[in-house]
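ingest -> validate -> predict -> emit
validate: passed (alphabet ok, no gaps, 213 aa)
predict: started
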Amino acid sequence: MKKAAEQMRKWRLSVSMDKFRELRKVYNEAGVAINAFKLEMANLSDEECDYGFNVARALGATHVTMELNLDPAVTERIGKIAARHQIYVGYHNHTQVKFNSWDVALAQSPYNGINFDVGHYAAATNESPIPFIRKYANRIQSLHLKDRKYSSNGGANLPWGQGDSQLKEILQLLAQEKYSFPANIEFEYPVPEGSTVMAELARCIKFAKDALS
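emit:
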């Protein structure tokens, strides 16, 4: 593990950004914008963090996303690096959060932001994600959309429209308030028997279109 980590560190510190720019071109020509680059930076050196922000810039992304770390020293350090690059960090949540879990990081740097997973939040808090979105909209860099039951209802990840995440209402809120951050389908529920991943993704897209029609 240590050897692999050292090899990865050396690669990150030496790799050209040209390949990432080429990748961006491929996606852009297909009509797809890359809005985020994921890199877990909590245990990386500052130089490796620089690599992450350089990749994000080369890809045309607005932010680097990583798991929300509840150690203030980590978010303070990452926030300073983000400010130096003038590219945001979107701290992502699983079920380790409460309503105010991002507050320390947000206060530390204007470049510390939120990559908000509405399904994980609903399961974690047994609460609607909508009040959170309304309060923190100006610090949200992107949303992950999935439909989960509240943990009090079992916490299961379900086809859209069957969970407690209030996806329809969230999509309508985004349109109503004209929020500019992207909302991404994060497909995690088990594929029903007889279906396929692509068919279920189409189902998610139809759900969103119907919600906004």
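The radius of gyration is 18 Å.
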